[in-house]
Specification:
Elements: H1 16-20, H2 30-33, H3 56-63, E1 72-78, H4 81-92, H5 103-109, E2 116-119, H6 124-130, H7 134-141, E3 150-152, H8 162-167, E4 172-174, E5 182-190, H9 194-205, E6 210-218
Parallel strand pairs: 1-6, 2-5, 5-6
Antiparallel strand pairs: 3-4
């Protein structure tokens, strides 16, 4: 089997853990995995951006109608060149196999999670265009159970600049499912926080008590 990123042959080393826990073998080589920039534990308490306890964007949300809708948040990786290449191939070239690259890291991040995991949904047009939900597929590859509680009802943010993103209104509505008290919102990419804050506020207004967030990438 070859690395899905560089096509070099993978060296498989059997382990008791892999045998008894039925772990799926890595599909990317160690050299390629090391190209991704893991985020340290220090940084913004809501999005992991390097710097102070609360970054500029998150301070804006806390001061403009979204105070305490999110309890805390975490991002796993920075958006360096290696991640940009992976993200483009996965999301826009529709290489679904690449969801498995971070399966182990997501399993470890969510190993002791007790809250209900809620993926950020795509709108129907984007789902039809891409043929799969990239967030759902990341969770499925990591064997993480999740529940959909939201529907995307607003415009997409992909072509908007920072100011336009943060001014966007009403991105989500409830899908009719009962809203649990403890939730973990999951998305692939965190940019300005608009998506997460609006999703969290919709769920908070529907009865959620504690909402935390997890994103694979912090742009």
């Amino acid at each position: 089997m070859n690395c899905c990123l560089c096509d070099q042959q993978l060296r498989f080393v059997p382990s008791w853990r892999g045998i008894f826990l039925y772990e799926v073998p890595e599909i990317a080589c160690r050299a390629c995995k090391n190209e991704f920039a893991k985020i340290s534990l220090t940084g913004c308490k809501f999005c992991s951006k390097e710097g102070g306890l609360i970054c500029e964007d998150c301070r804006y949300w806390e001061e403009h109608g979204y105070r305490e809708v999110i309890e805390s948040g975490k991002s796993l990786y920075g958006y360096n060149e290696a991640m940009k290449d992976w993200f483009h191939q996965y999301k826009f070239l529709k290489d679904v196999l690449l969801a498995q690259v971070f399966a182990k890291e997501l399993r470890e991040a969510l190993a002791h999670e007790r809250a209900v995991v809620v993926p950020i949904p795509l709108n129907k047009e984007k789902l039809h265009e891409r043929s799969f939900s990239q967030v759902d597929q990341l969770l499925l590859s990591a064997d993480i159970p999740f529940q959909h509680l939201l529907e995307k009802c607003g415009e997409t943010l992909g072509t908007k600049n920072r100011q336009e993103r943060m001014a966007t209104q009403q991105l989500f509505r409830l899908n009719g499912e009962a809203v649990p008290k403890q939730l973990l919102l999951v998305d692939d990419l965190y940019t300005t926080g608009t998506t997460m804050r609006q999703a969290a506020k919709t769920l908070k207004e529907a009865g959620a008590v504690s909402i935390r967030t997890l994103t694979l990438i912090r742009a």
